[in-house]
Design brief:
alpha/beta, six-stranded parallel beta sheet, five-stranded antiparallel beta sheet, globular
Length: 324
């Protein structure tokens, strides 16, 4: 039995730098072939979304051309968010009844209800909690980063940034037979969590002796370094701790912030390889055997191993979004 269809919804808008507003809007008509989803959880992206909040996004660039709900330009007022778990509460004409009431994942902005085509929704597998499922984009990014870095047995790996993507990447890397897994983050809580999920060492990134401290642990420098902090300054540090012919995977999106790099000294003769990693596509070298669908199957499996109490610190009602 379908729930009563509401006539309005609440939607979060970014209206100016450091300003958000929850607006009541008329709910779009439930047309033929569409479903109505009621949100259960919507995760805040602490990286990309903070760039939107602070107004540090590039102008006149599509938010995400690969996601219909985010196809607009970066400009205020803007709906944003891309990690929502909800429940289908009503079906439009012609929709298969199998879509009634399952929990679904959607790459969709923060709002209480939305109308969607079933094809862009992903049913949440049985056995997964909604909090596990809402981490899907973060885990997909972590899987993509590990694939692009291609860690090898016995390597020394350094990860700058232990936000949710950095922590999930560390969790995956800890399952490899590495010689060292070293992480850096400015927040003590994240460093402690990093150690609990498999890092050998976790350091503050901004102390003046951090390069020498890392090189004491790995004298020849890191074989593989990830820059996931969102700070352009960290990219220079990542290069400096990477050894000769090592790899640096850049997973951060800096938005409108510029990265000033020192490429005239150590880097010039280092043969270090810098790789841009972005989850919306597959690396060309993998696309022959891998598809996004195959990668999602792997992501769902890994999400089942995540204890969300280690990664979810705050739960805030939509109406209190400004406090978040």
């Amino acid at each position: 039995m379908q729930e009563k269809i509401p006539s309005y919804r609440h939607s979060l808008y970014y209206t100016a730098p450091r300003q958000v507003e929850v607006r009541q809007e008329d709910l779009p008509e439930l047309g033929s072939g569409k479903v109505l989803v009621k949100a259960l959880l919507s995760a805040i992206s602490p990286g990309t979304e903070m760039l939107v909040y602070r107004g540090e996004f590039p102008q006149d660039v599509p938010v995400d051309e690969t996601i219909d709900a985010l196809a607009s330009q970066f400009s205020y007022p803007l709906k944003y968010g891309y990690s929502l778990v909800g429940e289908v509460i009503a079906l439009g004409q012609g929709v298969d009844p199998i879509w009634m009431h399952p929990r679904v994942f959607a790459f969709h902005p923060h709002e209480s209800h939305f109308v969607s085509e079933p094809a862009v929704l992903m049913p949440v597998p049985d056995g997964l909690s909604s909090e596990q499922a809402v981490l899907l984009p973060n885990m997909e990014t972590a899987v993509s980063l590990v694939m692009d870095g291609a860690p090898r047995i016995g390597e020394n790996v350094v990860v700058f940034g232990q936000g949710i993507v950095g922590l999930l990447t560390t969790r995956l890397l800890s399952q490899f037979p590495l010689s060292n897994l070293i992480t850096l983050d400015q927040h003590a809580l994240r460093r402690r969590t990093s150690l609990r999920i498999g890092a050998n060492t976790s350091l503050e990134p901004d102390a003046s002796n951090r390069r020498s401290q890392i090189l004491e642990l790995v004298p020849a420098g890191a074989d593989l370094t990830y820059e996931l902090s969102g700070s352009p300054a960290a990219l220079n540090q990542a290069i400096q701790v990477t050894g000769y012919a090592g790899r640096v995977v850049i997973g951060s999106w800096y938005g409108a912030k510029r990265a000033s790099l020192d490429l005239g000294g150590y880097f010039h003769r280092s043969r270090i390889r810098l790789t841009s990693s972005q989850v919306s596509s597959l690396a060309p070298g993998l696309s022959g055997r891998w598809s996004k669908e195959r990668r999602f199957e792997l992501v769902w499996q890994f999400l089942g191993t995540i204890e969300t109490t280690r990664f979810v610190t705050h739960r805030i009602p939509l109406q209190q979004a400004a406090r978040a």
